[in-house]
């Protein structure tokens, strides 16, 4: 399995247990770790999916959606998945753009892990997909934590898209963030 490591050059606190984050393909054997965040209503609050209630549905999701996905990685701590990150490519005239998505087990929120994972994606995706010129992320206006992750990772907040989509039965305003292949990497 291909694995990418990211260890920050400078840690503000001089080092911590979360300084070494890796990305690798998510596998069916990761189901127990996947269920930790996939069953958590706090994690799925701003996601398009509802919390999983059984392993069979989660295994089908991994088998049918994750494994065939061109760029879906587990965010790992000590090689154990604690979240996931994906880049979905567009096609046709939009092939220059890809959409970033990520999720992290709630027990790891606020520790800089999501920011580190997003920085690692930004550092590698433009090389892996040379056609990509823009990586973008849509974040619910109420999801302040995710907005901070993207800002810390060097993404630019472009604006609010009002009444942009329906999420869990309610029309939602979304904030558009982007990172260009020509932007300086943080």
Automatic annotation (TrEMBL):
InterPro entries assigned to the protein according to its UniProt record, in alphabetical order: Acyl_CoA_acyltransferase, GNAT_dom
GO molecular function: acyltransferase activity, transferring groups other than amino-acyl groups
Domain N-acetyltransferase as annotated: residue spans: 21-173
Pfam families: Acetyltransf_3
Domain of life: Eukaryota
SUPFAM superfamilies xrefs: Acyl-CoA N-acyltransferases (Nat)
Classification via PANTHER family: ACYL-COA N-ACYLTRANSFERASES (NAT) SUPERFAMILY PROTEIN (PTHR46067)
Protein name per Swiss-Prot or TrEMBL: N-acetyltransferase domain-containing protein
Protein source organism: Salix koriyanagi
